[in-house]
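Thread title: Can someone regenerate the structure for this chain?

I was given the following input by a collaborator and told the matching structure tokens would be attached. They weren't. Posting the sequence so someone can regenerate them.
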Amino acid sequence: MTAGAQGGRSGLQKRYIVVLMCALATFICYIDRVNISVAIIPMAEEYGWSGTTKGLVLSSFFIGYMAAMIPTGWLANRIGGRMLLGVALICWSLFTLVTPIAAAVSFGTLIATRILMGAGEAASFPAIYNLLARWMPGPEKSRAAAINLTGIPLGTIFALLVTGWLVENYGWESVFYAFGGAGLVFAIFWFRLIHARPGVHPTIGAEERALLAPIETETGTVRQPIPWRVLLSHKAVWALIINHFCNNWTLYLMLAWLPSYFRDVQHMSIAGSGLFAIGPWICQFVIGNAAAVTADKMIAGGADVTRVRRLMQCGGLVGSAAFFLLALQATTPAMALFCMCGALGVGALAFAGFAVNHLDIAPRHADVLWGITNTAGTLPGIIGVAATGLLLDLTGGYTATFLLAAGVNLVGAAVWLAWGTGRRIID
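Best answer:
Regenerated them for you:
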């Protein structure tokens, strides 16, 4: 093997070590975020919370998450993703750890703790997109983004499996102690990565380096002005903003309410609700990665990037809406599970749609762009999660919730079809 080939292979390995570490950080992020969707069932029983109060607890996380999203995107662009993600890991893990203590003190203290935890987690994706933009060439971006995003379903599956077991055997408080501690341990490994790998591009082949040329400088070294006017005025960015909102409506609905849906409607146990809720996330994992590999192969084969992104994004949103409408007819646990698997699984086509599009249209500023679009993408965590609790109290069922989710998805598909693009709008 030639020295050039060995260097290219070494560069590939280094890139995917970074991607896998990012995916593990996302995994930790989501086990800390999802555990309360199961733990809140015994918490509500202990403290006598109504559906509306549960919704407030679940949605409070997203207040801090949304408020910190653009500032952490700016910070990632200024100081780079490695240090920011490590500090964020410590912060959100600590607030996860103290959640039971906060709940025992007062309801207000619990809400404040969840808000601060959300602010810590806000830094995760801007930091990760900062790294992906500077390490991954174009033909690998869909797969890199999808590998990172698989931390969402895998973290969710793990949390749903383990949380119910911890609650039934050790009490709901143990969930936060165990997961918060795990995050602090992982932070140690993340900082070892920082010291082991200097902030330079790996040794890769000339062709790959040419693809990375616009963004191959050391993270944070070049202080180029952030083009806020261009980013906030271009219709392709607004397509991303609106679709991030629409896509996350389903994501946060499932994260927060899926175990309660199986518990309340299908009358399953707490552990059974968590276990049954795993199926949709397995579907998301499988379909999301398959979509990313397919998209990269299509682009490498000469397919137009815009056409690929539109196919994946619109297919995911329309398919998800169809399964939500079908769920209105679900009368058995098996049928309900099938519909939820379809809604979340088909929706994962967006892994190769909007989720990677930040790297297509503004690679140098993908971190800031993610901060902008995910600010809108966090609104469903506040509005949608809380509104679901209110709708449950008002209607006594999930019909209105599923109709609303289907409508939101269809609006997103229409906007993406009109304004979405895979062309770079700014270097």
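The chain has one domain: 3-216+227-419.
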